[in-house]
Specification:
The protein contains 17 helices and 10 strands. The protein is an alpha/beta fold. It is globular.
Length: 444
């Protein structure tokens, strides 16, 4: 297979996605019919499944699951599959209740088919994107990239680390004449420029072959998205009043109480297994207890499964020069972490004892990251706003990159959550957390 053939087939990957999604749905339907003991030869089921498939594919397309993108399968894709399937289920259930309300078996068939479809479609896309990753590392489907503008070092570093994107950076410049001279040799241009004047509009419009990616400031990206408000032809960043809804806070506490209580009961066998392994492989206590700052800077003791050897805090001073995250102390290869501790951290199991803190009311399921008192020095001025709510077991910092985020971006995500928190947002973050842990590499 030549590189020219692979890169020249622009829609090949999209066709492969359509094909695998259809196959996975048909497999899900067949499996559901078999498990429910229904008649495969009944033509009604064929018509029913074809209509369901049509609705599902329309929803997939509306959530841009077939859009051309360089990033591989991630938690956002999983959530889009989940949303699309939920809408499809709603449409099919309504149709059944309207035209055949007494057929409970048909409702079960819908539920089983779409449940299996979520699992099989996610797995197939994960495998397919993994294959694309392999081909890109082998030199296929590569894109030549130019960076134009200032303060792009962090993004350049991320692109070089994330080889699955298939980007080859060939030039970094802030000179428009250099940019013009390279346009015939690049496929993608990243621009870190706030104002687009006539010269740049001319370049963008006259070079439609190029994929232009204009990077806004962190403030524009996180505090509030660009919308069309009073002026229908002019994009505006509209920062609305950020009043915390007291009614939702009550609902949120009830949800935290129920979720943490049920989770502690269900996860008790896992807690027992982890406790036994820690006691037999790591001398010392099972739990790591440490003071953290909660809502309104109120201190509380956070619980975690111990992932470091005894005396780790005493060694921190010797390693402080090797810190890799501004505002926090984090190392990718921290020598204080044990082998089993690395597994606990990679899977997020080390943080599950915080369900106790949630049940006690010191934390929430969703919220900002709980911080040490020693880290408070980094939260000056506007950054103190992130202490207006209880810290969380998970949050936007977990879903959108965790340790891959720099300090200020993480704080801005916390503030964004505080300004916009709702039941829907909390459920969305909870659902995204597990795939985010599985697929993200940025956990120390």
């Amino acid at each position: 297979m030549s590189r020219r053939f692979f890169s020249g087939k622009k829609y090949l990957f999209t066709v492969m996605l359509y094909f695998t999604d259809v196959i996975m749905f048909l497999l899900s339907a067949s499996l559901s019919v078999f498990l429910l003991g229904l008649d495969f030869t009944n033509p009604f089921y064929a018509r029913f499944f074809l209509f369901s498939l049509l609705i599902l594919m329309i929803n997939y397309a509306s959530y841009k699951l077939y859009a051309d993108k360089r990033s591989l399968f991630d938690d956002n894709d999983f959530m889009k599959i989940l949303y699309s399937t939920a809408i499809t289920a709603l449409v099919m259930v309504i149709l059944v209740l309207m035209f055949n309300p007494g057929d409970a078996l048909l409702l079960g068939l819908i539920a089983a088919t779409l449940f299996f479809s979520i699992i099989l479609t996610s797995v197939s896309r994960f495998v397919l994107f993994g294959a694309i990753n392999y081909f890109r590392k082998e030199g296929y489907d590569r894109k030549k990239v130019l960076f134009f503008g200032k303060n792009s070092e962090e993004l350049i570093s991320k692109i070089r680390e994330n080889t699955s994107l298939g980007y080859d950076i060939i030039k970094v410049t802030n000179d428009i004449n250099v940019l013009k001279s390279y346009l015939s040799r690049v496929d993608v241009v990243f621009m870190t420029k706030e104002e687009i004047d006539e010269k740049f509009l001319e370049l963008i419009v006259s070079n439609s072959r190029i994929n232009w990616k204009i990077i806004p400031s962190v403030l524009n990206l996180v505090i509030e998205p660009v919308t069309f408000d009073e002026f229908k032809d002019y994009p505006i960043i509209n920062i609305s009043p950020g009043n915390i809804n007291s009614g939702f806070v009550t609902i949120k506490r009830l949800m935290d109480l129920v979720l943490s209580g049920i989770s502690l009961i269900i996860l008790s066998p896992l807690f027992f297994v982890v406790t036994v392994i820690i006691k037999t492989t790591m001398p010392g206590p099972v739990f790591f207890k440490q003071e953290r700052l909660g809502k309104g800077l109120k201190p509380f003791v956070v619980y975690k499964f111990r992932s470091m050897k005894v005396g780790a805090d005493a060694e921190k001073a010797k390693l402080i020069s090797k810190n890799e995250v501004k505002g926090l102390f984090k190392m990718k290869d921290d020598p204080r972490i044990t082998k089993f501790g690395k597994f606990l951290r990679r899977t997020g199991i080390d943080e599950l004892p915080q369900l106790i803190n949630i049940f006690k009311g010191e934390m929430a399921v969703v919220g900002p990251r709980p911080h040490l008192r020693s880290e408070l020095i980094n939260f000056n001025d506007w950054r103190r706003a992130r202490f207006q709510v209880k810290p969380g077991l998970t949050g936007m910092w977990q879903v959108y990159g965790r340790h891959e985020l720099n300090f200020d971006k993480a704080v801005l995500y916390d503030i964004y959550y505080i300004r916009h928190m709702s039941f829907v947002m909390d459920i969305s973050i909870i659902l995204k957390t597990i795939p985010a842990i599985i697929m993200n590499k940025g956990r120390f």
